[in-house]
Amino acid sequence: MAEVVSPITRQVSRESREIGTPAVDIHLEDVQDCLIYDRHGVSIPFKKLYQDRKSVIIFVRNFLCYSCKEYVEDLSKIPKDVLEDADIRLVVIGQSAHHHIEPFCSLTGYPYEIYVDPKRCIYQKLGMKREERFTDSAHPSPHVKSGMFMGQMKSIWRAMTSPVFDFQGDLHQQGGAIIAGPGSQVHFSHFDTNRLDHMPINWLLQLAGVQQTLDFTDKPKIIHV
Fold this sequence. Notes:
Strand order of the largest sheet: 5-4-3-6-7
Shape: globular
Structural class: alpha/beta
Oligomer: single chain
Order of helices and strands: EEEHHEHEHHEEHEE
Strand content: 15-25%
């Protein structure tokens, strides 16, 4: 039987998940009008993502980051009907130019909504971290398969072989995850402290209302609980 996960309504870090931390003060009103861009360069205000439905929104570091690539590869394994049954949107936001979206989706197989915030307007206004912090008590991400050295080598190689040589975003910027909507209500937020500090996908899905647990070790298998 899958482990029962208790609801979480506050910021969670790797070293303090068991003991709890103070609530994060996030106001979506501060970022609702920030523009994000789709793969065609068409802009929409950020609030469009969560106005009408509950949304799980993942902010990645940059599209060259090996850990973000492997995390999004696992996001791509979520069956569409799982999201539809829970009536939630899954959205990834990066901080590169919009022309990097299509190659990133081809690389990861990610089929859901994805946008970019090239000026890092949302990242900055929400207070996402811009430097990495590692701790001895950090837990390894269940979604990152590469070691740090090999992962960084892969990222550098992808940058060198990209049609446009750039790092596809600020290398120091960290990401995070929020569950919001409908309206401006924030149900959950987590800001990454480093490249391995992604929230486990099953945690996010269950907090958003998904009643199943997915197995990301190979192909996603639904474990009924």
